[in-house]
Amino acid sequence: MEILVCVKRVPDTSENEIEINSDGNDIERDDLVYSVNEWDNYAVEEAIQIVDKVGGSVTVVTVGDDESEEVLRREMAMGANNGLLLTDDAFEGSDGKGIATILKGAVEKGNYDLIMTGAQADEGAAQVGGMLAAMMDYPYASLVNLIEAGDGKLKVGREIEGGNQEMNEIELPCVLSIQTGINEPRYVGIRGIRKVASVEIPELGAGDLGVDAAAIGEDAAKVKRVDYFMPDMGEGAEMLEGSTEEIIAKLIEYLKAKGGLK
After folding, report:
1. Cα separation, 242 vs 245, whole angstroms
2. In the chain, how long is the greatest CA-to-CA distance?
């Protein structure tokens, strides 16, 4: 099975103290420590496990600048077979649809049975996987936390509201957005990093992908960030104590006082 996994280089929130820039339209990105998006890391691990069982190869792809190559090498050190960097000045400022359009060009350059993304990236919109599937006219499932490979089909489990699990059968080729917790991503050691340090990673621009520059980038973006702010800190939570009946009675009174119940 040929699998393409879309990954992204994002600020590592465990290593950075996030601050808003002076213009108030982005975070301050100078001196940030970056890593691969957490959801994407689970997607790569799942792809590697599938290939270990049924054969094939895993290609990791990212849209970014030259510095984004580091996340490709990290995932290749993890076990992905190939990396692909999509980089072009024309890509700068693309919204979700623009990124999906760029990735569509990469999908069409290959012959992939399965395309995987993380459920969401650092912007939190959780939209690129679904947009890519729609553009490709492929079946799509989001919040996937279980995959069983079959003959030309996959059995996938989805996390849905109320902590419930939904099971579906989906035909290949398809697009899946992966939820965290589907597996335990393997440790990447220095030996693996050294092994892929000199591996050539192809770079493709808009022309290579057959992407119309007018359909991507900042000018084509339909969604643009206009403000960035830190919410005001509210008061700390109040813990209710007592028996179950007493806690329920107190909660009802609070809801009535705040207008939640009438």
Report:
1. 8
2. 67
Q: Confirm if 96 and 40 have CB atoms less than 8 A apart.
A: no
The closest of 132, 98, 123 to 215, measured between CA atoms, is 98
Amino acid sitting at position 256: K
Domain boundaries, the chain: 2-220
Tokens for 156? 């996938």
**Separation in Å, CA 217 to CA 20, 24, 100, 107, 224:** 23, 21, 12, 19, 11
Euclidean distance between CA atoms 45 and 51, whole angstroms: 10
Residue 78 is inside which H or E element, if any?
helix 69-78
Phi, then psi, of 172 in degrees rounded to 5: -95, 150
Q: What is the pTM of this model?
A: 0.85
Angle between helices 69-78 and 38-54 (to 10 degrees): 40
Q: Cα–Cα distance between 240 and 157 in angstroms, integer?
A: 36
Query: 17-61 pLDDT, tens per residue?
Result: 778 888 877 788 888 888 999 999 999 999 999 999 999 999 999
* Token pair belonging to 206: 């808009």
Report the CATH number of the 2-220 domain: 3.40.50.620
Q: Are 101 and 133 in contact (CB under 8 A)?
A: no
Distance CA 178, CA 116 (A): 7
Strands 174-178 and 114-118: parallel
